[in-house]
Amino acid sequence: MTDPRQRLIIALDVSTAGAARKIVAAVGDSAHAYKVGMQLYTAEGPSIVRELVASGRRVFLDLKYHDIPNTVGAAVREAAHLGVSMLTVHASGGGKMLRAAVEAARANSNGKPEPLVLAVTVLTSLDETELGKIGLRGGVLEQVLRLTALALSNGCKGIVASALEAAALREEFGQDFTIVTPGVRPAGSGPHDQARVVTPAEAIAAGASHIVVGRPITDAIDPAAEARAILGQVS
What we know:
With 235 residues, this protein is α/β, with parallel strands linked by helices. Helix content is 45%, strand content 16%. It has helices at 17-27, 38-44, 46-54, 69-82, 95-107, 128-133, 140-153, 166-173, 200-206, 215-218, 223-234, and strands spanning 8-11, 33-37, 58-65, 86-90, 116-120, 158-160, 178-181, 210-213.
C-alpha cells in the first residue's frame, strides 16, 4: 500500500448520523475508510452506510455476524448490496457459517467490488483470564491461530486480531491475507476498554494490513491533524 491512508480505518463510534458527518467532514482527505459498528448502525440503520458509500468513502461494516449459516448468509447478502468494502463475522461461528458468508459476499455485490469478509478471532477486550472464564483453554494466541486457520480454510481472505498476534499470524500463514487490528492507540493514549493495545507503528511493524482507530481521532480537537499524525507513524 503506497498510500498510508489505505491502512487507516476511523471508527465512527457515535450515535447519530449528524455526529458521524461532523467527524467525516473534520477528517477530510486525511482518511478514506470508516468503520460503522453496532452503535451507529443500530441508531441510524443502513442509510448512513449508503450515504458514506455514495460519498466515495470505504465502509468497514463491523456488526460481527454470528448465527446459523442461512441467517448470516442473508445478512451478508444485504451488506454486499449496500456496497461495503469490508464486513465482519465471528470465526467461532464455525466453518459452515464462514463459507455461507463468503459465498453470499461473492454472489451478491450487484456489480460492486466483492466485500472482504473478515473473521473476528479474539476480541481485544479479552485476555487469558477472561477466555478461561468462558471455557477456552490454551491462551489468546493459541485461540487466534486456531480460528484464523478455520477462517482461511473456509474462504475468508482476512481476519480481525490484535497486533500482538499479528507477527505470529504472518509467520504461520504468510502474507496473502488481510489482518485488521483494533485496539490501536497512539503513544500516550489510554487503553479505555481494551485489554490488548498497541501503537500504530507497532501494529504495522507486526504485520497488520489496516488499523482501526476511534477516540484518539474522533475526540481530538483537530481530527484531521490527529489522523495525519497517525499516518506519519505508519508510512
